[in-house]
Amino acid sequence: MKTKRIVSVALSAALIAALAVPAGAASSSFTDVKDTATSINADVLRLMGVVDGVGGNTFNPNGNLTRAEFCAMVVKFLQKGDQVPVHATRTIFSDVTAEHWGLGYVNLAASLTVKDGEKELPLISGVGDGRFEPDAKITLAQATTILIRVLGYTSEQAGAVWPQSYMNLAKSIGLTDGIAAGTNDNLTRAQAAQLFVNALGCKMGDGSDYYKSLGTSKEDVVLLAINVDTDDGSAHGAVRTSDGTYLPKTEDVEPTALQGRRGSLVLNDKQEIITFVPDDSEAVTITLSGDAQPTYVKASGGKQYTIASDTPVYTSDKAEGTDYVSAHTSLYSGSQITMFTERGKVVAVYAGGSTATSDAGAVVVNGNASEATFYTLTGGGSNFNVQKNRHPITLSYIQDNDVVTYDSLSNTLIVSDLRLTCVLENAYPNSKAPEKITALGHEFEVLESAWAMTPNFNVGNQVTLLLTADGKVAGMADPTKVRSNAVGMVSEGSAQVFLPNGGTLELKGEVSNASSLANQLVTLNSGSKGKISATRLLAKSPSGGFEVENRKLGSYTVTNGVRIYEQVGSGGAMVPVSISDLNMVSIPSNKVASYHLNTSGMVDFIVLNAVTGNAYEYGIMVTKIGPSPTDPEVGVRTWNLVRGSGTIDLKGTGYSGREGTFAGVAMAADGGVLDIVELTAVTGVKPSDFFESQGQTYVTVSGKTYRVADDVECYRKVADDRGSPDNWFTQSTGKERLDACKASSSNLTVYVDSLSQQVRVIQAN
């Protein structure tokens, strides 16, 4: 297995520009290591016990190595460090005496032999005259030669001309990959780290993999989290992987740069980690520009990645992965993921960033936030990223009573300003230090950070819960001082609260004005047990339009995690809209019905007025005869909208069009009809006119290209009654319906809406 840099230097500049790789994605456990490759290499060797820095938790990556220092690394690389004391009681080289720190290492390395055909050769040699020159700088050629011997290559395999034949062999087996140094250049510590990690993945002289000689290897393992408890809770400092949780052989190491990496795990006979060898997969970290789709994701910048449904997806909080088709529904716009690719195929996904859970604890901000505020949370780390509503911010944007959690993989502070006022209904095991509390029919997990505040409240009290991005209680506040700002939607007997991480939280209770507020964005709170108060989000117009790509609404920044809804008119039902549905550069301010700001003054909700056409239901207009509500003996003709997913009774609307017209209907929150628009027919369409690009389906007819709506309805007349459900394709997705429709006929008609020119209905003729 030839080891490569995790982020390949061969990536094109265009690809790098599209990725938005977080600055802390490979945060080294050494404070002075910044670049990704050295961060990973140094932490591999730290996990292995080969390096421990140069003091002050620094690695000095640009410093040159001496011959004695390299000997020490070789001895530890061979897992023979426990033999050093035995060799520190004699002198082999006249210039390596008891006064030299490296005596035992140099002597041991000189005493080790390697097979060279029928002969035995010492692993290292002196420079002549009984000297070793331990403090002289080691060159790339000298270091490479020693590792060629460690790997078991003979003089015959290496060639007779030193150093060139040895360097040629090293290049052919990948030993010197990623090292930009001349043959006789002095070796830096960063270059040495690359050399040793390369050696782990190299083939040996007999054709076997070197790392497999060190212990039992487990392939295709993802390191999910470091410094966690063992399975039985008896020890801390373990590493959670996709193959289980193990303690490292080397004590007190936290190889943070390896979190979220994929490769081969090597264990000794005590099931301790000897080392981890990053594999040839490239790790690409992106921020999603829209919610993940069943077969693909899109990065900021528009690049799309196809992901097979059975691709494993891992998170830092649990070892058990799940398949992508199950996990994609929890990957929202603004979420950060790392994809492992081999030969262009995504083979595994690590979901970090705002998708991470808050099990590690939280900080409730009181006053101005600084790095010191989060010292305990981050383990003393610095240079971290900060996100609010999945949008990058600086510490100055964090507000009083905001809740902050930490995702160690991406070195990111995750800020939540979600607050919910409610009445405490129950606390377990007690109200002073609860692990769980119940309010509005929901059982909330309570983090220890809240315990400093819980003694101020008892069961039956009204309280404002300060919630993490994933909906856990990190603190409590007096509702007269800290108000609820939860936004969601309601129905009879329940409410849905939208979480900053993109998820939802379900509440139960009697909802005030539920019928008139259905399918509307509302702010939520509760003043008494079992009762939910909902207030419609106020309509307000921005000072300028919505710049979709630039994420600006007037003068405000629009967060990556923004939720966008669309309605028709002020009373129309609101339907969610993906930002990928907004295929325009900007939307004028008169098309923005309302917006909402988070506590940092950034836009986290937007309501559009009839922009994409997604607020309409599409189908065919048919009439039916029913009894008059005032005289059952009198028949009354009424309109229905019939579609594949069912029939909508238009309740006596005054539509004056023709029966059999394909149309779109916008419904009000109370069930009334707000608007009916007729679709435009485009005839003479063949199945071959459809094509896919970047995960979206299009059709080109007479030189004009239309986007096909994701939820497109498909129709064919097989029953005389236009209102019969048998006339509709009923597959579960628009793509499946389209495929079935294309297979049924070579002559199709597409029906396009006038707002966004999307195909809403397709008819097989």
Write the layout of secondary structure elements.
Blueprint lengths: L12 H7 L16 H13 L18 H11 L25 H9 L1 E4 L2 E4 L17 H11 L4 H4 L5 H10 L15 H13 L14 E13 L9 E4 L2 E3 L15 E6 L5 E6 L3 E6 L8 E3 L5 E3 L5 E4 L2 E6 H4 L8 E7 L2 E8 L10 E2 L10 H4 L6 E4 L2 E2 L10 E5 L4 E5 L2 E5 L2 E3 L7 E4 L2 E4 L16 E6 L5 E5 L8 E6 L2 E5 L5 E5 L1 E2 L2 H4 L4 E7 L2 E6 L9 E2 L4 E2 L2 E12 L7 E3 L8 E2 L4 E6 L5 E7 L7 E11 L7 E9 L2 E4 L12 E6 L5 E6 L1 E6 L4 E4 L2 E6 L2 E13 L17 H11 L3 E5 L5 E7 L1
Parallel strand pairs: 11-14, 16-19, 29-31, 34-38, 47-49
Antiparallel strand pairs: 1-2, 3-4, 3-6, 4-5, 6-7, 8-13, 9-10, 11-12, 13-14, 15-18, 16-17, 18-19, 20-24, 21-22, 22-23, 24-25, 26-27, 26-30, 27-28, 30-31, 32-33, 32-36, 33-34, 34-35, 37-38, 39-40, 39-42, 40-41, 42-43, 44-48, 45-46, 46-47, 48-49
Strand fraction equals: 25-35%
- Overall form: elongated
What is the C-alpha radius of gyration, as a whole number of Å? 32 Å
Give the total of beta strands.
49
State the helical fraction. Answer: 10-25%
**Count of domain modules:** 6
Unreliable runs, pLDDT <50, ≥5 residues? 1-26
Structural description of this entry:
This protein is mainly beta. 13% of the residues lie in helices and 35% in strands. Strands 32, 33, 34, 35, 36, 37 and 38 form a seven-stranded mixed beta sheet that branches. The chain is elongated, with a radius of gyration of 32 Å. The two termini are 57 Å apart.
